Amino acid sequence: MPLIPEEPQIHESAQGPRATTAPGRPAPTPRPVPGPRSAASPRPGSPVPGPARPTPPAPRPGPGAGQSPAKPGENRSNSRTVPQLQVIPAPADGALDAAEEAVDLLLDNGRSPGDVLVLTTGDPHPWTAHELSFGERAYWAQQDAREDVFFAQGAAVERAATRPVVVVAVNGGDDDLVARVLPAAMARAGALLVVCGDPQRVNALLGAGV
Fold this sequence. Notes:
Blueprint: E1 84-89, H1 95-108, E2 116-120, H2 126-132, H3 136-145, E3 150-153, E4 163-169, H4 175-188, E5 189-197, H5 199-209
Parallel strand pairs: 1-5, 2-3, 2-4, 4-5
Helix pairs in contact: 4-5
């Protein structure tokens, strides 16, 4: 299911933990991510967002979107609505920055932090590494609490819980790992799956894994 990346239409805010951009790397290009249109209040400690920019176009629905509701007696697992899919073009070394920008826009547009799960296929997000230093029990308990955006490594996707929005940063990992993570991420996305990475590779591996 090839997708055509859309033109960037996003403004930056500072929600959630952020990774440090390497010296000399150009600032990542803002990219569109859909979300509710109601204004969201900044989380404590966050700067007030700048002037609003044009609303990005809604993504193309993923396969199966808009299908008829299940009929009485029909197998509900077979009638599950497939989440919308949006691919944000990004190189491996810029995928994590793109994923953070996507999360910022989702929160700015009214998504609750507890609605969002972020998966990385390469190096873990700095927040993940920091929280795991206190032990796995405390780390995974934060996922169950659903009070904030939860960051996890793609290799542990089977332990990730379903959330309305899943963002995947394809920031590394071999094809076998990415091909396992993408379908699992789609299965855990209740409404929207955002994948930040090379569109050609993402579409090929996502198609191969479903």
